[in-house]
Amino acid sequence: MTATTRETVLANLRAALPESSPLPELPTSGPWQTFEDPFVRFCEVLDSVGGTCCRVKSLSDAHQQLLSIDEWNSAKVRVSAVNGVGDPTVDLNSIDDPHDLENVDYAVLHGHFGVAENGAIWVTDDTVKYRVLYFIPQRLVIVMPSQIVHNMHEAYGRITIGEHAFAGFISGPSKTADIEQSLVIGAHGARSLIVFAVDDLA
């Protein structure tokens, strides 16, 4: 393509562009979306995206609930970064290379709080030796306080950007519908997500 032809094509494209529309004005101070019962809403949204939330009084209760799950008991490679929850088959302190975690069937990890509007949980890398564990296990359990904020605006008010090398929000098991418009669970991450919301983490 010559320079003249290129300029002609680009000029024709610019001439065919639709008229620009002004960006919408977004509120900077609310009011934001709120819910009568943020915890109930969190559970509903998490369920709608394929996850499960179970509220428990203590870590001991979370442990007992986990031991009643058949998939946990049948999993060959289990890890837990939450003291007192689960009976892992692998000691994370003995792992020197995160690639050795490629076959983890079940992982129990920490979360900090949940968001009612989208069922997301805030997670950070300071609670686990290898952050890949949030993404590579076949099944994922997140243990967090039963603290739920209404919306993402409140969520961002609780976190400090740049405080962690890695941090993010997780909601539901991995899923995609790109292939023949058929929903596939666990295509590029955990096949299931269970959240234990603990009233007393002391």
Keywords:
Rossmann fold, 202 residues, alpha/beta, 5-stranded parallel beta sheet
Outline the structure in words.
The chain is an alpha/beta fold and 202 residues long. The chain has one domain (35-200): 3-Layer(aba) Sandwich (Rossmann fold), CATH 3.40.50. The protein has five helices and eleven strands, in the order ααβααββββββαββββ. The strands form three sheets. Strands 1-11-6-3-2 form a five-stranded parallel beta sheet. Strands 7-4-5-8 form a four-stranded mixed beta sheet. Strands 9-10 form a two-stranded antiparallel sheet.
User: Which ranges are low-confidence, i.e. pLDDT below 50, for 5 or more consecutive residues?
Assistant: none
Query: How far apart are the termini?
Result: 69 Å
CATH superfamily: NagB/RpiA/CoA transferase-like
Helix content: 10-25%
Secondary-structure-derived class: alpha/beta
Strand order in the largest sheet: 1-11-6-3-2
Number of distinct helices: 5
Average pLDDT value?
A: 90
Order of helices and strands: HHEHHEEEEEEHEEEE
